[in-house]
């Protein structure tokens, strides 16, 4: 019963979508009942007068243009006058109304009864999961694998298969869990460790958290030549303020590269920001990011969690004050935004992004790097 009520409502809406514009068109006053051509030509005449008054065209050209447009306007008006009268249009309107109200619904119902399957029950999810894989959507295929894994949680290969699919669907947390299960069951593999670390990094808005760092480090231990985990570890060093180590890591990556790799451009940009130079190698005016020193990091290890958090806040506050008063490099603004995100102060990160955009409004390349970081951190900006 509900199905037929919905059909009736949808049919009524379709009929109204046809009838309402027709009724409104019929009720328009004659003065407003201009054809599209007439309206266009009238606007052209107004435009000619405007251009003449502004001195954009000379009087002779304006007169010639007016004459041609006026001729077209009269021709359009004459065609309009020769159209059927309002009485004839009214009779046609009634015919259209009758078709929309009676014939259209009856024809739709007849076609559905003849070609459709009104008595066919809904197809449950279980039945859809059992259809051939080539006939299923990605969502159904994922549900199919999930059902299998719920019944066979120790199928490591199944977890390895669904993990990259989760990441492509924008579910990095689920992807990281799937990779962790595959590693637990089948043992660690460099590519799985790297992809798990990447998923954790994406889930944390571009921050290389401790679990991700451990995964990257384990991947490098298994394959010292692997580029992807070393790339993320270099990013982690920069995020932690370990500038010299980060520079060494980027240089090591680039020395072994051919220079045409997809990641090489990003590596060069990160290195240039850390060294305080632009992409072409010219010395920038602002120094590289000044994070906590090695002594600060060593001292923080002896502190309790509350004191360590206070020390971090003091360093972040000092960096923010210096950037506000003296300015700084794009890398320093990126470091400040990341620090605020780590501290859970997203609004301050948004404010830092706004200040950075103002500071680098005239430097599109640096501004692009700042916006890239903002997107990784989930900031909206302007």
What does this entry look like structurally?
Helix content is 73%, strand content 0%. By secondary structure, the chain is mainly α. Among the domains are: 2-115, no CATH class; 294-377, Serine Threonine Protein Phosphatase 5, Tetratricopeptide repeat. α2 runs antiparallel to α3 (59-81). The longest helix is centred in the first third of the chain and has 30 residues, at 86-115. The chain is flat, with a radius of gyration of 34 Å. The model is unreliable at 27-33 and 278-302 (pLDDT under 50). It is found in: Cell envelope. This is C-type cytochrome biogenesis protein CcmI. It comes from Roseibium salinum.
Question: What characteristics describe this protein?
Answer:
single chain, 382 residues, mainly alpha, Serine Threonine Protein Phosphatase 5, Tetratricopeptide repeat
Main β-sheet, in a few words? Answer: none
Indicate the radius of gyration in whole angstroms.
34 Å
Instruction: Note the total helix count.
Output: 18
Helix content: over 70%
Overall number of strands? 0
Beta-strand share of residues: under 5%
Report low-confidence residues grouped into runs of 5 or more.
27-33, 278-302
Shape: flat
Distance between the ends:
51 Å
* Class derived from helix and strand content: mainly alpha
Order of helices and strands: HHHHHHHHHHHHHHHHHH
Overall average residue pLDDT: 74
Oligomer: single chain
InterPro entries: C-type_cytochrome_biogenesis, Cyt_c_biogenesis_CcmI, TPR-like_helical_dom_sf, TPR_CcmH_CycH
Main location: other
Domain Cytochrome c-type biogenesis protein H TPR: 137-255
Transmembrane segments: 6-23, 95-115
